[in-house]
Structures are given as C-alpha cells and as structure tokens.
Design a protein that fits this description.
By secondary structure, this protein is an alpha+beta fold. It has helices spanning 2-35, 42-52, 88-100, 127-180, 196-227, 229-252, 257-284, 297-307, 332-352, 384-388, 405-416; strands spanning 56-61, 64-69, 77-82, 106-111, 120-126, 293-296, 317-321, 327-330, 359-366, 370-377, 420-427, 430-438. Strand 3, helix 3 and strand 4 (106-111) form a beta-alpha-beta unit. It comes from Gemmobacter denitrificans.
C-alpha cells in the first residue's frame, strides 16, 4: 500500500499538469487564427474555444496583456494556478484538492506559451471535466496496480511455497512417518532445502533421527539382554559344569572312555564360548543404517549358497530360482547376512535329522510394491516354542543350544530396509521364510 501511495500521488499530479498544459497549448493554437489577421466570426470563436475546452484566452507579449478569445463565464473564477512557478509539492497538493472537491467551479490557469510565443498564456476552464478525467485516470491506475499486485502476490506465494512451505511440509511428513516406524532407517531425512535455515533444520533432524535409531536399538537390545541374564547364567553354568565333570574324568582316570569323552568336552566348551560371543556382540548394537544401492540379486544368492558349501549336487542340495535380471535396491552386505543366516539354519535343521536327500530352495521375484525372497527347506520344521518367539533374542532358538540371535538380527536388518520377514509355514514337510523389501521410499517428496 505504501508503494501504491508513492506511485499514485505523483502520477495523478502529473496527469493534472499534463491535462492543463494541453489546454494551454490548444488555446494557443486557437489564438493563431487571430494572429493570421483573418476575420473571426462569433460562431468560429465559440467553436475554437469549445475545441480548446476553455472560456477565455489571454496572451501577453511585450508586457501587453491581450484578450485573444473570450466567452461568457458561467460563474466567477474561484482559483488561480500558475504552472510556471509550481513546485512538485504544489502540484501534488493542488491535484489532491481537485480530487476531494466535487464542486463545479471556474479556475484560471497561467502557463508558458510554446515556441516562445510570448511571456505567458492565461486561460479559464471548468474544474469538473478535469476532476472527472483525473478520477478515470486514477481508477485505471488503481486497477493496473491491483493487477500488478495480484501477479506479485501470486509469484510471492509460489516462491514462498517452493522455498518454505514445501520443505517444511516435507520435514513434517518425515517426522510423522518416522514416528510410526522409528526403526526404519530409510525414514532418516536427506537435507535438500535451498533455504540455509531450513537445510540446517533438516540436517539437525537427520542427525537426531540417526542418533535415535541407534539409541532405540541399543535400548531394545539391552532390555532383551537384561531379561535374558538369568537364562544365560543358568545355561552357561550347566555347560561349564558338564565341561568340568569331563575334565575331572580326564585328570583322574586312565580309562579308554576318556578318548570318547574328550570331544564332548571340547564341544561343551565351544558352545559356552559361542554363546558368550553372540551375547556380547548383540549387546553392542553397532549395526549401521543400510547403504541402499541397485544390485543384481542372483549373484548375491549364489555367493550365499557357495559360502555355505551348498550347490545343486551337494547334500543337502541347494536349488536357486532367481531371475538373472532381477535388480533390487538394498544393502548387499546386510541382505547377504540375512540370507546366510536363514540358509545356515535350514542346513543345520536338515543335518540334524541324520538323513540324506534334503533340499534348500531360494526363490525371488517382485510385484508392484515389493521385491520378495523366499528361503525354504525340507527339514523337520520348527518346534512350537521356537515359532512362538521366532524373532526374539535368546528365546527363538530353533535347535538345542541355540541362542536365537541369528533370526533376531536378521529381522532387525530387514526392518532397517523398511521391509519385513515372516514365517510362511513350518511343519513336517519343511519350513519357509518370506522376506519383503519395499520398492518405494517411505515418504514421497512433493514437488512444486
């Protein structure tokens, strides 16, 4: 509005000045008929005055004031304005006075003749037509200013929306999505704002989310670790007691049975060491967020099978049904750890039966929303207790002496990708696990 005032007031004053100056020039042109020495009839004089829009025309040359054209004034002269000496302030003040005064009155205007045709020219005109012209001009200026203001407001709105509203809305969506699944590492916001302050806020939010994910994992693991201390102590005491008994027999007896007891002693001690190492590693909670990249799944699955010593000719046999061109977006190292854990569990389940001819199958595919990976075996199936606490640390072990940490860590890694792992079936014919990895991100950024 201040800009409107600064533009409108000088422009309306300029319009009034130009309007009066035009009347002076027309009046001077009308007076040229007399200067030519011709006869001017009353009818022609009225026509010249009407065309000029004035009542009287006075020229002053050589200090002589001459009434060139004249007609009867409808009313006395109410005001006189000298355009020769008027300052900008005077022009603005007189223009505003005309706008606020609706009375019809006659005013005298004095100006400088063009082409140095004399000392001055003086005319008398009605104020009403001038006021109407000024109001019409002002209305057009206001409409044009309103249009410019609307366009400016629209551009400002789009700029604010793109630079401020959309980034803030994106931060809010990330915060809402993160609150729903704080363990999903894909929900950590990536700073993209162009405004420095907003980018700093996004960076701070990303750091906070990263720290909170680690803290939540640490807290959850420590909680599970604390709840399992009693069970670990009991199991470890039993294992070490067995090892101590076998050691006593070795020290006190030269019986040949010692040769058969020695492997059991080694096995008991190894189980104790393995349990301690797994427990300590789980308590550290040092898993990094997944580094998502595009990768071909079949070579990764083949590496997992080869790392476990499995092939189509091994016992148990490993069958791979993964399309060669299937590409996924995931952390290759973490997906390999998940699959290696499931394949290792499947191999151990089959070997525990003491029978040959078992099969492990790895299949994969995709749909509109997810990539899926299936790991199945022809083992004896999981016991009911293991199925009830399948992905809970220290409670979901599927074999005797197992701690259940492998499946708990595998489930955590899959959740870090925003996916899920589920048990499809487990019965006398075998066990099948299904992994879902989402294709799309958790938050779709809005673009302007």
């Amino acid at each position: 509005m201040l800009a409107e005032v600064l533009i409108f007031v000088p422009s309306i004053a300029r319009f009034r000045y130009d309007y009066l100056q035009m009347r002076l020039e027309k009046a001077q042109i009308a007076s040229l008929a007399l200067e030519a020495g011709g006869m001017v009839t009353p009818e022609l004089e009225r026509e010249l005055l009407a065309n000029a829009g004035v009542f009287n025309v006075v020229l002053r040359r050589d200090e002589v004031r001459q009434l060139v054209l004249s007609s009867e004034l409808p009313m006395p002269v109410a005001a006189t304005y000298d355009l020769r000496m008027a300052s900008s302030f005077d022009l603005i003040r007189n223009a505003l006075a005309v706008l606020v005064d609706p009375r019809e009155q006659v005013m005298r205007v004095i100006g400088q003749p063009v082409q140095q045709a004399g000392l001055l020219i003086e005319i008398t005109v009605l104020q009403g037509p001038l006021r109407r012209e000024m109001l019409d001009y002002g209305l057009r200026i206001l409409l044009l200013s309103a249009l410019i203001s609307a366009i400016t407001a629209a551009l400002l709105f789009l700029a604010v929306r793109r630079l401020m509203v959309l980034p803030i809305r994106r931060v809010v969506r990330h915060m809402q999505a993160y609150a729903m699944a704080p363990e999903d590492a894909r929900l950590v916001i990536t700073p993209t704002a162009r405004v420095v302050e907003l980018r700093d806020a996004e960076s701070a939010l990303a750091q906070m989310q990263t720290d909170l994910i680690g803290a939540l994992r640490q807290k959850a693991r420590l909680a599970q670790l604390g709840g399992a201390v009693a069970k670990i102590s009991h199991d470890l005491r039993n294992i070490l007691t067995s090892a101590q008994l076998f050691a006593d027999r070795i020290e006190q007896s030269a019986d040949p049975v010692v040769a058969r007891a020695a492997p059991k002693l080694v096995n008991s001690i190894s189980r104790a060491v393995s349990l301690c190492e797994s427990t300590l590693a789980f308590g550290k909670a040092e898993e990094h967020p997944p580094r998502l990249t595009r990768l071909s799944l079949r070579p990764l699955v083949e590496d997992v099978a080869e790392g476990e010593g499995l092939s189509s000719d091994s016992d148990p046999a490993c069958l791979i049904d993964v399309p060669p061109g299937l590409m996924i977006r995931a952390d290759a190292e973490q997906v390999q750890r998940v699959l290696a854990n499931l394949v290792r569990n499947a191999r151990q389940a089959i070997e525990a039966t003491g029978q040959s001819g078992g099969t492990i199958e790895l299949a994969a595919g995709e749909d509109e929303r997810d990539w899926w990976i299936k790991v199945g075996d022809t083992g004896p199936g999981l016991p009911p207790k293991a199925r009830d606490h399948l992905f809970t640390a220290f409670q979901g072990g599927a074999r005797k002496g197992g701690s259940g940490l492998g499946l708990a860590i595998a489930a955590e890694l899959v959740r870090g990708h925003g996916g899920r792992i589920e048990l499809l079936r487990s019965d006398a014919e075998g066990t099948e696990f299904l992994i879902h990895l989402p294709k799309s991100g958790p938050v779709d950024d809005e673009t302007a």
